[in-house]
Amino acid sequence: MERKWWHDKVAYQIYPKSFLDTNGDGIGDLRGIISKLDYLKKLGIDIIWLSPIYKSPFVDQGYDIADYYAIAKEFGTMEEFEELLAETKKRDMYLIMDLVLNHCSDKHEWFQNALNDPEGEYADYFYFRKGKNGNPPSNYRSYFGGSCWEPVKGTDLYYFHMFSKEQPDLNWENPKLRQKLYDMINWWLEKGVSGFRIDAIINIKKNLEFPDLKPDGKDGLAECWKMIESADGIGEFLEELKNHTFQKHDAFTVAEVFNMKDGELARFIGEDGYFSTIFDFSAHCLSEGKHGWYDAPDVDFKTWRKTVIASQIEVQKYGFEANIIENHDEPRGVSRFLPKYAANAAGTKMLGTVSILLRGIPFIYQGQEIGMQNAVWNRIEEYDDINTKDQYNIARKAGLTEQEALEVCSKMSRDNARTPMQWSSQKNAGFTTGTPWLKVNLDYKKINVENQENDPDSVLNYYRKLVGVRKSAEYKEVFTYGKFVPVYEKTETIMAYYRINEKDRILVAANFGKEAAEIKLEYPVKRVILSNQENVSAEKIRNSELVIRMESCEVIVLECEYTV
User: Fold this and answer.
1) Which residue of 110, 120, 138, 479 has the smallest Cβ count within 10 Å?
2) Distance CA 89, CA 85 (A)
3) Can 38 be counted among the known catalytic residues?
4) 150, 256, 369, 415: which one is catalytic?
């Protein structure tokens, strides 16, 4: 495998609106990010991913871009962005932007021009189609509910949107549009951005016939992604995108990819793949309901373990994936993947260890490093997220009571990840001196950075050690390029794997059970590298004849003797 500059890096996602507000308007800003770069450096972060900071009406929190070349005034100025870029480089860190190429805002000048002249040049930047028999052109349900087709006033035309009606999809079949997008991407790369997280990229290739599909709900509609699965030829777009932009700048790219077809993984992340990496969402898909959040199952440990293992084994044949516990579109991982008895500091450290030491690029989401959890939501009005409000309505229409629908949203809402970062036990968790745009999680007096800075046994200080181990001169090679080999797969509660290369064998073992469990080691232990429990030593393991008793929520990282 050709070695790339990003292979051994650790990334951190910042959701700017909720990170740190420095001017008291209740919205996080670029100045706040600049002030915390040393905090991120101390955590061991190399790559910072900023969720969208472009000019936007914020119907979908900045994923509706009105100007790809402008910074939203809510976050600051282009001069402040350039200062942020310069300050990251001073610290040998890299900055990547969010790149939204499937759609833009309905306030973008391209779309405004298209509405003004639905038969003109800019109309072909989007998908305008005539209705059928007084109905939309096809029966697709958008990701946020309702039809994917919105009527154009004063005409018999509709425009297509897979997300909200304020996010019209861009027509990638138009070469002039594609070139404008490439010019924009290169503009940011030439400015000094190191790459991009690429949003919803699989959606850019449509089945241009837009055929009606078999309805899958009482509304007579079908999920829009089913149309995407029937489209062929996305590889041509992605190869052209790479060749015209990323490849020329040796940029790091991490794509959000769902609905990939069987056998395509190598083309996406292989030796000459379209992207540097893609996110591994396999575990997150375990809590998808058939009809919505209201029938989403809990994540079962054995299914989760099997899923993570299967993904790791498949991916290492071709390249690297990006490993996440949570992000801005998911509830908090501690609340999602751990049973209630494990939703504590020990369980948080355990889950973090298992994830960070997997093969692939670790991504930490803001607040994950202090163990932030889902909030308690009492009324639907407390939410800001457009998707949550849609899912609440779906649950109510399915017959759930108001309280039951709220409980579903409390468990699954994206706003759980978007509550303000908890910096201190001061008012509003130290996030703002004003009124926060979204409510602060009520547990902030217990879970915050300031408290954990002063506690050597805190989740934050453990994460610093954990990232330090992964990046250490002694172990960086095996954790970056070493093979993933699962072990103890038939146990009831143990998630464990080796990371192995030609000279090292590292065992990562965790007990997700409520009770203690024992495992018999396959190899003698040279050293205890890391543990979330006190008084774990190599001597103790040797004296127990290679049998380890692991307490509930205990995780241990062992350097074992290497034998072929």
Assistant:
1) 120
2) 6
3) no
4) 256
Residue 119 lies in a domain: yes
Decide if 88 is inside a domain: yes
Domain CATH number, residue 507: 2.60.40.1180
* pLDDT, tens only, 447-469: 999 999 999 999 999 999 999 99
Q: Exposed, middle or buried, 15 (CB in 10 Å: 0-12/13-18/19+)? A: buried
Report residue 73 as tokens.
């005034």
Residue (of 68, 30, 36, 35) closest to 50 by Cα position: 30
Task: Clarify whether residues 459 and 489 are in a common domain.
Answer: no
**In which domain, by residue range, is 487 found?**
480-560
* Same domain (yes/no): 97, 238: yes
Confidence (pTM): 0.97
Given 199, 326, 390, 415, which residue is catalytic? 199
Considering the domain boundaries, does residue 333 fall inside one? yes
H-helix segments, 375-495 = 386-397, 402-412, 415-418, 449-453, 459-471, 476-481
Q: Which residue is listed with tokens 């008012």? A: 427
Report the CATH number that the domain containing residue 118 is assigned in CATH. Answer: 3.90.400.10
Q: Is residue 428 one of the residues assigned to a domain?
A: no
Longest dimension (CA), the chain: 82
> What is the spatial distance between Cα 240 and Cα 460, in angstroms, rounded to a whole number?
42
Report residue 425 as tokens.
């036990």
**Residues of the chain predicted below pLDDT 70:** 537-540, 542-544, 564
